[in-house]
Every structure is written in structure tokens, then in C-alpha cells.
Amino acid sequence: MVVEFSDKDLEELINTGHNNRYKKYSKDKKFMEGLARKYKIMQIVPVAGELRPYSFLHYEKLANNVYLSSVRPVNNRVERVLFKEIDGGIEILTVELNNDHYGNKK
Fold it and tell me: Model-level pTM?
């Protein structure tokens, strides 16, 4: 599947492992390994709906926004990668930290 980025800082973080805006995440080895694994799976599957069988991704369409979906880079953590499903692929938007929804599980 084609994976595009609307957040160039996030693209740099995934491709190089370093970025000033996401400095906190780039220093977290467990997060970076999880993010790299999830990104590879997102590239392999033909459509976003095929992410559902991979239970460890925690793929979900967001209830409050019909256009957005998410996966979690690391299980039992509050970060999630938000993306928009587009024709022929997905567009990754950002990494979100939402303590209100998930509670602080770190």
C-alpha cells in the first residue's frame, strides 16, 4: 500500500530515527522499534482494512472522526499514529498522545 506523510517531521523520524520535533520519541528505543515494525506492515498490506487481522496493531477507525484511523506503535502505551485512508493507500498525519482517552499507562 502507498504510504504518504502530511507531517514531514514524522516522515523524517520514521526514515532516519531522528527529528527535533519528536526528540522525546526518537530517544525511546522501544517506541522507535515498534514504530518501524508497524510502518513496514502498513506498507505491505494492500488496503487499510487488511490491518485488522494484525491484532497487535490495535487498528481502529476513530469514532469521533470518520476520516481518521489509528494504530498503536507500542502495546500498553498511550501513543498512537493517526492516519487518513485515501485511494490506493494511507496518509500518515501525526503521532498523538491522548491521556484523556486511554489514561496514562506508561
Answer: 0.82
